[in-house]
Amino acid sequence: MKLNLLALMLTVMQIGSVANAQVIEVIDDRGNSIRLEQAAQRVIALAPHIVEVVYAVGKGDTLVGAVSYSDFPEAAKSIPRVGSYKDFSIESVLRLQPDIILAWDTGNGADKINQLVNLGLTVYWSEPRTLEDVSKSIADIGILLGSTSSADLAASFDATLTQLREQYSHKNRVSVFYQVWNSPLQTLNGEHLISDVMSLCGGHNIFYDTAALAPIVNIESLLMSDPQVIIASGMAQERPEWLDEWLEWPQLKSVVHQQLYFIPPDIIQRHSPRILQGASMMCDQIDRARQVYSQYE
Q1: Does the record bear Manganese in its keywords (predicted)?
Q2: How far apart are CA 170 and CA 241, in angstroms?
Q3: Could you give all domains of the chain from N- to C-terminal order, each with its CATH number?
Q4: pTM for the complete prediction?
């Protein structure tokens, strides 16, 4: 009898150990512990860049909901929409019965995300502020969705990042104005991921110390800073016509030395593996400017 009881206890302990081994846990960008009993099978992504990450780790088939402008890869266009990243429908989210929601902190807004949390839904908060954070997001999302390739993808991302850093970050600093939009004149501060890309490339964001993450600035402050390079993105994949409006300010160094550049927004403003394509392009642009200005030192 004692032997049978001991065997039963050992069996229970083994079952408990197996169950605990199956629990999935990561820490999101808010410092929350996200625990799942098994890999998520029904996923809603509340930002286009998160959709890209899910596909990149090989788990696009788990997506049951996404937001507007989730257009990469091509298959993402067919995912049911729950609204826009700024104004998604909580009713639509609930109707899809997700195992997990992958949310974008500053994009979706804390108030809206907290409504989902208060309804008992599991939410992973994503807010990459550095390129290393993008790598972490790739790894985290891969773990939560049971990907077998996310670790390799994150490692490849890190290797390319290290290569770019070794190639560019130690070079002479170049002052940069990154232009999101022309009217109103909008840029990004030092807390934003794109400012980290500038630093990687040996560039300095002239609005690094501005309080707002995506501030509206005036032309006077830009003229005073007189950046060596102006890099624009805009909303479309083509170079915006308004980039040439800077030619109306011939006193700017960036105009005098023809240092006006464009990077397609999808490869620089989306916090996905593709951001390294945009980073490589930015590093090349800043390095070209560096070579131009070195002639006048």
Answers
A1: no
A2: 33
A3: 21-150 (3.40.50.1980), 161-294 (3.40.50.1980)
A4: 0.90
